[in-house]
Amino acid sequence: MRSPTSLPALLLYQSERLGNHPAVRWKKHGWWYGYSWEELAERALAVAAALVSEGISPGARVGLWSENRIEWILADLGILTAGAVTVPAHAPLPARQVIQQMNHAEVQLVFVSTPAMAQALADWAAQPPTKKLVCFAADSPHAQSWPSFLSRGWQKRQQYFSELAQRLADLSRDTLATIMYTSGTTGQCKGVMLTHGNLLSNAWAMLESVQLGPQTVTLSWLPYSHIYGRLVDYYLSLAGGFQLVLAESVDSIVEDLRQVQPTSFAAVPRVYEKILDACRDDNADHQRRRLRSIFGPRIERLNSGGAPLAPAIAQAYWDAGLPLLQGYGLTETSPVVSFNRLEHNKLGTVGQAVPGVEIRIAEDGEVLVRGPNVTPGYWRHPEATQQALVDGWFHTGDLGFLDDQGFLTITGRKKDLLVLSNGKKVVPTELENLLIGSPHIEQAVVYGDGRSYLTALIVPREQTLQQLAEEHALTKLSRESLVEHDAIRNFFRSELDRLLAEQPSWEQIRQFVLLPRPFSVEAEEVTVSLKVRRQFVLDKYRSRLEALYHSAGGSG
């Protein structure tokens, strides 16, 4: 059989091949529900028919503003089946940013999750050219309801059968499938275009790399508005014919793991750090048993991406018999560029290139990528496209190096490279990885470009703060007062010195700010994949960091 040339063609192929086998499961009001491959394909066609009836033509952009839920998947598959383009927005984004992205993409219809989201877009949608809204969760005076929208699709399927068949036949690997906007709240919108061929090639490459079996069950919580979860969980399950199980929420992951007992699980480093924190024990055997018990007896591999994984965190999982494999990618590369395999893994690296992808290191240390997974460019932004794509190579903006076996190590971002006033260069992410490898430090951001020494923002782990408060009889203090207390600061001064003992003098953290609470999505300090938005955070706390350079002494 010829390989499918589009995602809808792949869905129809799996529907014919697997029929009534389970495709996707999800929980609602405490009960588990599911669709077979046949049912999934039928509903995708119904959504596509409804979109055609709404006047959505091939190539039209359709917005999708929602957290992960079964309707997200059905809407996405329906949009693609209609030959249109999915434009997802991260669920936690404020409406102003969503509107900015939807305007830039010139969407004609937006699926939203809740009536509150529909209300937030109502005035914008009413402005010419008017946009239609469809609401998943409940009836809204500002949007069509999902049940009525889907019902109309069922009724119109026969009417638009030949139209949909032609649209499916017209889809090719070069057809635009999605526009994904990169993280950020200021500046010009930057929408990454990805084709059906980009996404299919990356799914096939991952399938070949990880060698998952037909009995694979993937528990999925990573937001589909982010390319990591969308490809590594959702589209990879589509390519392999695996069962995809939607986690109820990020807060229910541990309970979902217990109930589902998956064979495969992907997350960002922050999740693995928090699970490890909950399992920490002075007795190493107890800690290993606790960690293994959380992921269940069937787990075969854990995948990490979206941000750097501290080697100490990875080592703790491997010590517990849990293969935690780190990879690397970007939205512009669909996303996976390289990945560690069970049989070929090097801690501290992001693995070897996946099949079909080439990696080259430029003279200045920048990582360049070429392959069928690379974006054709940025939506309505030819200047950015020309800067990023040169002679077929995508310039990632990341710094790194390849060893003699082709394992890639990422050392930081070109734009994040710090140059001290004495000319010494520092890659902040390397130091931050050392710091968050501590059982006492949850998050860290290093600062000091153009200054004579380094400073940092340090977020203590909750458990450590509680223990220190009890030890020093400080339990009545607020968090804000606690992190300013000399006893607490002295503890973290010693911890920083211990962690950086083997680093050169210019990589020592001379002074620091202890923060009372972790960086959050709500405060716009981290992305939806829980990656710290460095520039935003530094701008937010710049006055406090700058004050460290004017204080006396120069010690923490």
Indicate the CATH topology of the largest domain.
Rossmann fold
**Helix content, binned percent:** 25-40%
Provide the structure class: alpha/beta
**What coarse outline follows from CA principal-axis ratios?**
globular
Count, helices: 20
The figure for the number of domains is 3
Instruction: State Rg.
Output: 24 Å
The number of distinct β-strands equals: 27
CATH homology-level superfamily of the largest domain: ANL, N-terminal domain
Give the amount of beta strand, in percent: 15-25%
Please state the second-level CATH architecture of the largest domain.
3-Layer(aba) Sandwich
Strand arrangement across the biggest beta sheet: 2-1-11-10-12-13-14-15-16
pLDDT < 50 stretches: 552-556
CA(first)-CA(last) distance = 65 Å
Name of the CATH class of the largest domain: Alpha Beta
**Main beta sheet: strand number and arrangement?**
9 strands, mixed
Chart the SSEs and their pairings.
Blueprint: H1 7-18, E1 22-28, E2 31-36, H2 37-53, E3 61-65, H3 70-81, E4 85-89, H4 95-105, E5 109-112, H5 115-126, E6 132-135, E7 144-145, H6 146-156, H7 161-170, E8 176-181, E9 191-195, H8 196-210, E10 217-220, H9 227-240, E11 243-246, H10 253-260, E12 264-267, H11 269-279, H12 284-295, E13 301-304, H13 311-319, E14 324-329, E15 336-339, E16 352-353, E17 358-361, E18 366-370, E19 377-378, H14 382-388, E20 389-390, E21 393-402, E22 408-413, E23 418-419, E24 425-426, H15 428-436, E25 441-447, E26 454-460, H16 462-471, H17 479-482, H18 486-499, E27 509-514, H19 534-540, H20 542-548
Parallel strand pairs: 1-11, 3-4, 3-5, 5-6, 6-7, 10-11, 10-12, 12-13, 13-14, 26-27
Antiparallel strand pairs: 1-2, 8-9, 9-19, 14-15, 15-16, 17-18, 18-21, 20-21, 21-22, 23-24, 25-26
Helix pairs in contact: 1-2, 1-3, 2-3, 2-6, 8-9
